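During the no-cost extension, the postdoctoral fellow (Dr. R.K.) reprocessed legacy sequence entries with the updated structure-token encoder. One reprocessed record is reproduced below for audit purposes.
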Amino acid sequence: MRLTERLKKWARAVKRDGVTLWFATRHPGVPWCAKALGIFVVAYALSPIDLIPDFVPVLGYLDDVILLPGLIWLAIRMIPGPVLADCRDRADQWIKADGARPTSRAGAVFVVLVWAGATLALWYGLVGPWLGA
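Re-encoded structure tokens follow.
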């Protein structure tokens, strides 16, 4: 199998597992710690805004290539096998029927709050000493 084919297969699996987590966060058979991590990952993964914008050289794709798949992998590992199979089936049906991924407004709000907090911290770190704060 060629490298490009393996990468495409991997990308489809990550996309499916992101949608799988979306269903898993609502499933009663998922432990609370997996739900908590799943909610965070789904909110971030489905957010229309990236934590690190893609136009930032190298770092812009770091979250898409390393951070997000790693968090998805960790959350998936915390879900019991039968529940995971059910959620994957539901995700496959969703992808076949709708084709689009769901979106998360909560994820967008989270990313905006992180950026606002970082901006305030930077502002007070750089400008605060000059203002006597």
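The chain has one domain: 3-131. DSSP finds six helices and no strands in the chain. The remaining legacy entries will be reprocessed before the final report is submitted.
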